[in-house]
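Kindly go through the following sequence and its backbone structure tokens. Advise at your convenience whether the structure tokens fit the sequence:

___
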Amino acid sequence: MSTTSIKEVARRAGVSVGTVSNVLNRPDLVAPSTRARVLSAIAELGYVRNDSARQLRAGRSNTIAVVVLDVANPFFTDVVRGVELAADELGVMVVVCNSGEDPARERRHLEQLEQQRVRGVLITPVEDQPGSRLEQLIRRGTPVVLVDRGSSPHNRCSVAVDDVLGGRLAGAHLVEQGHRRVAFVGGPPSIQQVADRHRGVAGALAGTGAELVVVATPSLTVASGRQAGAEIADRPPGARPTAVFCANDLLALGVLQEMTLRGLRVPEDIAIIGYDDIDFAAAAAVPLSSIRQPREQLGRTAAQLLLEEVEEGDGHRHRQVVFQPELVVRASTGGLPRAPVPG
């Protein structure tokens, strides 16, 4: 299929290429009758402007990127929805990239985004060490905002939830329910959110006489949750944790599935609490207790900070915004009665 050029539009309308450009970019400079002729020619020929070429000539695009750990996780779906709401208000396009918790894949995404001259990047990073590809991106002038992750360097903004507090809320709730052997399920520990949530639950159990058993997982997925659930269920009853705190709701759903398959009752035999409070948590066969994060608000706030930095340039003051998590108690920890089984 051939592509109509701006020269063809100019010939059809009987004007110069410069006049067509003015109609597209500065219509107030063109007489109404001439503008009408050009717009008519555009419609007749089916001309589509090449915004990518124009943006590259200008040195930046009209696109921001979101790099998430797992595009299949509903938590990130809600975060991206918040980003899009903020971007739509300013006519900015959003591109979503999935790192899949893979540092090499994350680096490739960042390289490609820099080549495309995106206006800025929102990212939940897999790796964020000195000399990382993310640091290189920032040093070379691309604005970056960390999402669902705090920032110790002050050369970027961040929007996060106090995950240490979230872990403490989960641990305190389980101790109050009388549990004295609690499993923490999550990993890899290199992900800062996992480390912070572990630190929080460990702090809540310290000094209470309760034991914390760590069950590491290779990822934050339902499949990893089922594997962790199998490891917990295979322990002798006297050594088996009576409660499980998972680093996210997908892991908690996996643990719940495995316990159900093994014939273990939730919460009677084992209590489960997740993190994020995605919609599936409340809709599970046994509604899951969870630590709620303001998911859409995280995305919207991060996008607003990024677009402020794009507009303000060197005058921008970096900010670290931290939201407070909330404990939501449901049937999986005995907070509410189980739903009756039909029939």
